Structure formats: C-alpha cells, structure tokens
Amino acid sequence: MRIALIQLEYADGESVVDRTSRVVELVRAQAGHDLVVLPELWSAGGFDYRAWPERTQTVDGPVVAAVAQAAREIGAVVHAGSIAEAPVDEPGPEGRGLWNTSVLLDPAGERVARYRKVHRFGFGNGEPRLMEAGEDVVVLDLPAPADGLRAGLSTCYDLRFPELYRAQVDQGAELFVIPAAWPAARVEAWRLLLRARAIEDQCFVLGCNTAGTHARTQMGGRSAVIDPRGEVLAEAGTGQEVLSVEIDPALVADFREQFPVLADRRLPPAKR
Ligand SMILES: O=C(O)CCC(=O)C(=O)O
Questions:
Q1: Is 271 a catalytic residue?
Q2: Which atom of ligand 1 is nearest to the CA of 156?
Q3: Which of 10, 67, 181, 196 is the most exposed place for a label (fewest CB within 10 A)?
C-alpha cells in the first residue's frame, strides 16, 4: 500500500479559498498513492482559534467537497485532515456547536468516516472553550485501493491518551491515522509518542503534522510513518514536505503472531 502524508506549511494571511486550492493541487500531485493524508485544521488554522468561528465548515462544505473532487481525480482514499465543523442544527451538549472533525473519503469522494476529536487541547482556552468534545471511537476497514488494514482515527492531542488507542485496538485497529498541528516546542514528545503508540499497540502509525508558523506558533513538522515494530519508515523535516512510503499490510498480523504481546494483556476489559 502506497501512502502519502502531506505535511502542509502555512502562515497567517492566506484565505481559506487560496489554501484549499493549494491543498487540492498537492493532493492531485499524489496520483499513484492508495492513501493520502492531510493535517489537522489546515483550513481553519490549527492554533488560529480566534478565526475559527468565521472559518467553520460542514462535512459536506466547500473544503471537504474540494478535497473529495481531488480524491475522485486520483482514485485514492483521502484523509482530508480535520475541519472546524459547525453542523447545521446541532448545538452539541455544551451548546457550542463546533467540533474538530476529521473526514475520510473513498476514491469516489464519498465520506466513509467522520471522527470528532475526543481530547480537546488548550487547558481552558482554544478547543476546551470553543469546541465540543467528540465521544466516539472510530475504527473502520479502509476501502480499496487502501484496503487490507483496519484504521483507527484520532487527532493531535489524542496522542497523549494511550487508552484511546487501546480502545481502537479492541475494535481491531491495525493502523492509526493521526493528523496534527503539533508545535515545535514539544515536537520531541510527538516523535516519541508516535513510536510508543506503534510499539505498544503493534500498529502502523501515520502521523501527519503541520509546518510553518501561524498565530505566533511554530509548528513542529516531523510527520512520520512507523511500522508495528516501532521502526520509523520515513520522517519529514520541519518544512513543507510530502512523505511517500510503501507499507506491507501483512506485517501487522505477521509481527503480532511472531511477538504476541497483545495476547499477554491482563486487565479485564471492564477496567481497561
Ligand atoms: O499535546 C501537545 O503538545 C500539542 C497538542 C495540540 O497542539 C493539539 O491537539 O492541537
């Protein structure tokens, strides 16, 4: 399976329309890949939370529609990264009506999964003040041409919460797709936790981060593809870059059989 992670660089001052056109071109340029992944909140601006209210989208809105068109053109499964999702007529439990929502598209441009970020980052500011928390664990069999692996979806700060990934493994996950806007200040934690999740859950990990500086926050880059043994198959630098990697889906089952750590879990499911 051929995978492309688009580590997008952006700065303040670029309109959502211009950024979307740029991203669509980058997705189109990945023809020949089976799965293409974009970062977290690239249209709204990962740390530009003051602008989120004017950059909201629905999962059928123009940003996702433009990426869906590119998915159709190249015949790939595309993880569109996440949007600041404000659905019509859904105020949410906290009355904010806004979620950090990832969307996975099949090669016909149809939405096959929606994941709302469960753990909100900001310690009382940003996401916890403006957004609702997602409540669902989302795991699915990837559609062709990226078939052969079961994928769990999560976003950025979720990476710090291993219990979410164990819950995905309990639902059969073999690959974690993690779009992010993770800052440079803590990029070593990002690199380490991506590998930790791969090793402890014996899964492929696709971590697609953001580059550049926006909203006075320098992003960390270092997107990576990691195999179920914890080997880093590819890692980006700190600028805009596309990581193109071939992975062998059979490695998950082979390695889990050869080194069956997950079979040695002791806690009863109710306490996990
Ligand atoms: O956990 C971190 O250090 C960064 C998380 C983050 O930036 C996010 O979730 O948007």
A1: no
A2: 9
A3: 196
